[in-house]
Amino acid sequence: MRVFVTGGTGLIGSAVVAELLGNGHTVLALVRSDASALAAEAAGAEPLRGALADLDILRAGVAQADGVIHLAFANDFSSPDALAKAVAEESAALATLGEELVGSDRPFVTVSGTPYAPGRVSTEADPLPTDGPVGGRGRAVTAVLGLASRGVRSTAVRMPRTVHNQGTGGFAGLLTNIARQTGVSGYPGDGAQRWPAVHALDTAVLFRLALEQAEAGTSWHAVADEGDKVRDIAAVIGRRLGLPVESVPAETYGPLGPIFANDQPSSSTHTRQALGWEPKHPSLLEDLENIQP
Questions:
Q1: Which of 271, 211, 222 is nearest to 20 (CA)?
Q2: Which residue segments constitute the domains of the chain, with CATH numbers given?
Q3: 76-97 pLDDT, tens per residue?
Q4: Do residues 49 and 31 lie in contact, with contact meaning Cβ atoms separated by under 8 Å?
Q5: Which of 51, 91, 135, 236 is at a distance of 20 to 30 A from 74, taking alpha carbons?
């Protein structure tokens, strides 16, 4: 299958591209820079120059592909306005990609976060949030899944709070960066809230399985660790960096503060049973031992 991949040179995307190429697929990768184009070519993919906001380029990519995997996101959490802009840009891109696929029965795999289920572990059956800081993303992904009724084999892989590789990535990576900046390995509240996690290489396998096998309108959880306490995550970061570990105000994390403070464990039982996905790589707490002082 020839697969058009957005975000194919990032932490997750590069793993997904390698997984696709290693299993007989070819890849057309959306790239924003010369460096990204070289990285895509070195990996064995064909680069397509353009940004997520270049809707005509997205249409051209779909026209050349048998399926689409969407991973690109601006990841600008510096302010509420910046986050809202990133969500709006992605929403427009998803709508464009989806419309180009209508009536084709081609697979369209997109990405979202695992949902919040108050007082319990979330499952694949839980709806995505459609309000709050990233509510727009939930609405856009829900619309993509709705394309199942219009001849698109649309599916969503829901990512946990941290997708990691070699001690970097995800919300745990943000905690590490903030610890380096502030001199404190912090956590919001009492740190008992739990974050799910998965290794990037395990995530890549799930994206391939969803592309190849998933039925239209389905959602899947890329969760290996159901939920690590944030204070335990901060403790490893603090030990690796030689920094004190303590509670800090949620405001430390800007627009992500309310999300960081949530207890949000998540299950992947259905995903494992239905698609035969089985994570094999190190857990988050094990992988954080790769953080360099």
A1: 211
A2: 2-162+198-225 (3.40.50.720), 166-196+226-265+283-290 (3.90.25)
A3: 767 878 878 888 999 999 999 9
A4: yes
A5: 236
